[in-house]
Amino acid sequence: MPELPEVEAARALAERWTVGRTIVAADDADEWVCRPHPPGEIVTAIVGRRVESVERIGKSMWLVLDDGSRLGLHLGMAGRLVGLAPESSGLPDTAGEPLTARERSDWSMPVRSGSRPTPTGLPGEGSWSRFTIELDDGGRLVLFDKRRLGRVRLNPDLSGLGPDALLVDEDTFVTRVGRGVLPLKARLMDQATIAGIGNLLCDEILWQAQQPPLRPASDLSEAELRELHGIVHACTREAMVRGGVHLGDVIEHRKKGEHCPRCGAEMVRATVGGRTTWWCSFEQAWPPVED
DNA sequence: AACAATGTTCAGTC
DNA sequence: GGACTGAACATTGT
């Protein structure tokens, strides 16, 4: 799920569950998700610290602790954050998106072997729960990640990230995006250029903008880049309102045999910027179709 | 069974 | 060094 809109929802959830509270325990036993930190290193660093705020740039977020250190959380390809109330056996806080039946099963009664050596059997400690912190009010924040591509890092290096896609101003956007020979889609998804746009949101943005994913980024005029900046902002906001990038207008048409919901032409597929990309064969053709 | 999957990283090439 | 490419990463879903 996680592109900028989903990560922002997760950040807000983490904020509600942790800010102003002190971390009293943590589980960093997953050596893959917590790498390169050996088990116990993160626990030692964060237990006893109070959470001051939860920040985000693009798809990266981090807790700011009262000693100035940061605890980085990245959801990877399929991770999500879940809040669990004290003594709760009831429904966890999933910020709107409920757990599926299978996920609830793992959440409440871990039965799989998975990566966790010793499941405790407590709610929120199933094998898909990769990292947990417990706060002084008894609440817990859990990184729930079936695919295990999420990451937890102490003081993560964020220097490689470009400006957040929702905050970047128009002039900066024009300068950074309208450069280089990369296909426009690859340029928009490059987190060093602009942070926050992933595969689905990018397909939606380019479809809304009627821009070809394969068009070289530097081929766009300044006027086109300024318009694109507005569409990036609008699509990202809209995804937040709707509750996820998967609810975009064109996303359900990213399938073989589907047609453009605007002009009816066939949707076509190719790999662009290393990801499966769908676009309207007529409106987003490159080079453009002349009549 | 084979392949794709909302992301990042790293080795390799130009 | 910078820009770019493609495979790898761990695991699940189709």
Class from helix and strand fractions:
alpha+beta
Largest sheet descriptor = 4 strands, antiparallel
Mean of residue pLDDT values:
92
Number of helices: 7
**Strand ordering within the main sheet:** 1-6-7-5
| Series of secondary-structure elements, N-terminal to C-terminal | HEHEEEEHEEEHHHHEE
Provide the CATH superfamily of the largest domain.
Answer: MutM-like, N-terminal
Computed over alpha carbons, the radius of gyration is 21 Å
- CATH architectural grouping of the largest domain: Alpha-Beta Barrel
**Low-confidence runs of at least 5 consecutive residues:** 111-119
How many DSSP E strands? 10
Instruction: Please report the distance between the alpha carbons of the first and last residues.
Output: 39 Å
By CATH reckoning, the class of the largest domain would read Alpha Beta
Please state the overall shape, judged from the principal axes of the Cα atoms: elongated
Tags for this entry?
about 290 residues, alpha+beta, N-terminal domain of MutM-like DNA repair proteins, Helicase, Ruva Protein, domain 3, 4-stranded antiparallel beta sheet, DNA-binding
Please sum up the structure shown.
The protein has 7 helices and 10 strands.
Q: What does it look like?
A:
The chain is α+β, with helices and mostly antiparallel strands and 291 residues long. It has two domains: 4-154, MutM-like, N-terminal (N-terminal domain of MutM-like DNA repair proteins); 170-280, Helicase, Ruva Protein, domain 3. It is 26% helix and 19% strand. The protein is built from seven helices and ten strands. Strands 1-6-7-5 form a four-stranded antiparallel β-sheet. Strands 2-3-4-8 form a four-stranded antiparallel β-sheet. Strand 3 (60-65) and strand 4 (70-74) form a beta hairpin. Helix 1 packs across helix 7 (222-242), helix 4 crosses helix 7 (222-242) and helix 6 (199-209) crosses helix 7. It is elongated. The structure holds a DNA duplex (14 and 14 nucleotides).
